[in-house]
């Protein structure tokens, strides 16, 4: 969207991360927090845009908020909230009309940066995923609270 975005990130368990470190030759074998990875991502993105646009300074305004998602039901609600956000802000009248959403990727075949299987399992399949988005058209005034 023009003035903000939402990102839902699932973090692997420390055990799985350790296992991956054993299999892959990385520059570092030190586990880093998800916050550190996101910070590195946003910093490198800012540097790239600043170089491209011959500018300096921050691209992102405060507040940058993050919240741990500790239940599957809250995760499902956030997926729907994020997909419905362009409708809430009246960029489009329905989520199918917003081309910059991850919603569309769940209906496409092939590889994706999304863990589609994990998300669709939480919804019990693609049809229930679609139905849940239709059922939850209520206007969210804020992030849905954890159940």
Automatic annotation (TrEMBL):
Gene Ontology MF annotations: DNA binding; transposase activity
Protein origin, superkingdom: Bacteria
Protein's GO biological process: DNA transposition
Protein name as it appears in the record: Transposase
Organism: Halalkalibaculum roseum
